[in-house]
Amino acid sequence: MRISLLAYLAAAAVTFSFAQDVPSLLKSKGCYSCHDVEKSKVGPPYKVIAKEYKGKPDAVKTLVQSITNGSVGKWQGLASKYGVNITAFYMPRQPVSKEEAEKIAKWILSLEK
Ligand code: HEC
In 3-state terms, what secondary structure has residue 84? Predict the structure, then answer.
């Protein structure tokens, strides 16, 4: 009885983490301290990132790499292309798994219709 309750709780916890939506994942990982969906902050807005990468081959792969390894200097030129005003030239590697980064990258790209 006790074991099956624990198994149930473990399964519920797994289900919960899969069901967690991307905006709350971004929140729990601290992304919003540097990014907004619409507005420029320390880093570029997610909607503008979507504009830049949507439809490009390897878009998901590129963004996953930037999120998990960090990104330097890419947005110096892109910021003026899109008229955004960012205040840092690099993003440190972020504490997300590759799977989470992939989910996030797809979500970002889906912001550009
Ligand atoms: C300390 C501030 C900071 C935090 C925290 C941060 N970012 Fe960034 N982010 C930046 C900056 C600055 C850039 C622009 C980097 C560049 O110019 O190469 C950037 C760029 C990006 C890009 C575009 C990369 C590319 O290849 O063009 C993505 C996607 C992104 N961030 C997602 C995230 C996600 C998801 C999180 C949270 C897990 C996050 N960022 C947390 C500052 C931050």
Answer: coil
Q: Look at ligand 1, atom 39, and give the residue with the nearest C-alpha.
A: 31
CATH of 21-109, one of 3.30.70.1290, 1.10.760.10, 1.20.1070.10, 3.60.15.10: 1.10.760.10
Ligand 1 pocket member 108 (CB < 6 A): yes
Collapsing DSSP states into helix, strand and coil, what is residue 38? coil
Is any atom of ligand 1 closer than 6 Å to the C-beta of 89? yes
Ligand 1 centroid–CA 95 distance in Å is: 12
Q: Tell me the per-residue pLDDT of 18-57, one tens digit each, with 9 for 90 and over.
A: 546 999 999 999 999 999 999 999 999 999 999 999 999 9
CA angle 94, 97, 99 (to 5 degrees): 130
